Amino acid sequence: MVKRQQFLDCYEQGRRYHSKGFILFVLERPVPPDHWRVGLAVSRKVGHAAHRNRVKRLLREFFRLHRASLPGGVDIVAVPKKHLDVPGLTLDTLTRDLEPAIAKIQADQERRSRQEGP
């Protein structure tokens, strides 16, 4: 995701999923294509530029590694919380933090698709 309006739509209309260090805003698109889109919003509250860049690199790598398990037809905006421990953040800790939220997103999508039904 690149455009400001895409981020705003996700913030305003999307569902929020909280983990220890992140908030994930998830917006289902009306005509769900097979792929998903990710936006990263890492503010200066997280730290100086090197810390912000590290968080973005790790988030991109997490979503790249988990692309098969992510639901299709959604926009996801990942926002780190202010108290995130960036120097101690590794891909393993990020994965342990975000996997339960991703599982919850999948479960909610499956439940909604079953409710809509044939």
From TrEMBL:
Show the GO MF annotations: 3'-tRNA processing endoribonuclease activity; ribonuclease P activity; tRNA binding
Alphabetically sorted, this entry's keywords are: Endonuclease, Hydrolase, Nuclease, RNA-binding, tRNA processing
Identify the domain of life: Bacteria
Origin species: Fundidesulfovibrio putealis
Q: Name one GO cellular component term.
A: ribonuclease P complex
Its function, per the record, reads:
RNaseP catalyzes the removal of the 5'-leader sequence from pre-tRNA to produce the mature 5'-terminus. It can also cleave other RNA substrates such as 4.5S RNA. The protein component plays an auxiliary but essential role in vivo by binding to the 5'-leader sequence and broadening the substrate specificity of the ribozyme.
- The answer to keyword Ribonucleoprotein applying to this record is no
Which family is it part of?
A: Belongs to the RnpA family.
The EC number on file is 3.1.26.5
Q: What is this protein called?
A: Ribonuclease P protein component
- Presence of keyword Cell inner membrane: no
Per its UniProt entry, what is the enzyme's top EC class, as one word? Answer: hydrolase
HAMAP family according to UniProt:
RNase_P
Q: Which reaction does it catalyse?
A: Endonucleolytic cleavage of RNA, removing 5'-extranucleotides from tRNA precursor
Q: Which GO terms describe its biological process?
A: tRNA 5'-leader removal
